């Protein structure tokens, strides 16, 4: 029997009961599907790591539905609230200092002194968080290092019965994960390029956003592991002329077996990226995939980050 349920009020209510009872619910956000649990329930959080086969040194994002929640467990200031007001709900995640000594969220934070938080821009996600009455901690709902899910079926394919319930809210509009910025210091440091363009943050703050130079294999910049989002087939990136035996994912006028965006729109390309990597994995006849060059600005930063990691061997 399928554990996919449509996002009706009744099913969201059921899902909130699953969250409160310590279960796992996969739910849609505007970026990718998340695998959610009650942030205060260490056992449920441990089950997330187990279901994903994800190492415990990799901290999770807390999803909130009201900005006021921040004050309870993170150090906030004017800059934090200004960013929240402008970009939330939306694909921007903030790394803040933890204030409350609440050991039950230690596992969610991987024991770090920081808390990572965002407000997703999806009615199902927001309704689920509100109904549950707690922040919902959620990584992308896929096996560790595999391609992130942008439909309910992707979640079912990857995690199956490891999830108690999957809420189906259709295909994710943004299609790449949130941008993560570290606000624990004076500077603003981008830890992961994502659905909010770096340029938009810089314009809003009137300040340069630095790019993390962290060691990709250490938890100071976790999730930035070199191999991530990986398809099964061999992947080459920045390919203008593919080999005959390669399955080619095009962009703009560079057409292929699939095209991320025939009109060259980076937002459209981001929204197709993970689904097309999956299709390419199924359809590549010779075990080889190539992707056309993607301009490295706006959402192109996130796309290039993902395919670079996906191509790493
Ligand atoms: O769009 C998204 O952000 C999706 C949806 C479900 O909200 N979530 C998501 O979560 O992508 P996840 O766990 O797959 O990726 C979160 C990344 C991880 O790579 C983690 O290492 C990093 O954020 N991270 C979390 N907390 C951190 C912290 N305190 N310091 C540095 N990196 C952190
Ligand atoms: Mg992930």
Could you walk me through the main structural features you see in this protein, from its secondary elements to its overall organization?
The structure is a single chain. This protein has 313 residues and is of the alpha/beta class. The chain contains 9 helices and 15 strands. The strands form 2 sheets. It has an 11-stranded mixed beta sheet, sandwiched between helices. A 4-stranded parallel beta sheet has the order 12-15-13-14, with helices on one face. Helix 1 crosses helix 5. The radius of gyration is 19 Å and the shape is globular. The structure holds threonylcarbamoyladenylate (TXA) and magnesium ion. Residues 29, 31-32, 34, 58-61, 91, 93, 95, 112, 114, 116, 120, 138-140, 177-178, 180, 191, 222-223 line the site of threonylcarbamoyladenylate.
Give a brief outline of the structure.
The protein has 313 residues and is α/β, with parallel strands linked by helices. Helices cover 30% and strands 18% of the residues.
SS class:
alpha/beta
Strand order of the largest sheet: 1-8-2-3-7-4-6-5-9-10-11
Number of strands: 15
Describe the global form: globular
Distance between the termini: 37 Å
Low-confidence stretches: 215-222
Q: Which strand-content bin applies to the residues?
A: 15-25%
Number of helices: 9
* Mean pLDDT level: 92
Biggest β-sheet strands, sense, barrel: 11 strands, mixed
SSE order, as H and E?
Answer: EHEEHEHHEEHEHEEEHEEEEHEH
Radius of gyration, rounded? 19 Å
The amount of helix comes to 25-40%
Bound molecules: threonylcarbamoyladenylate, magnesium ion
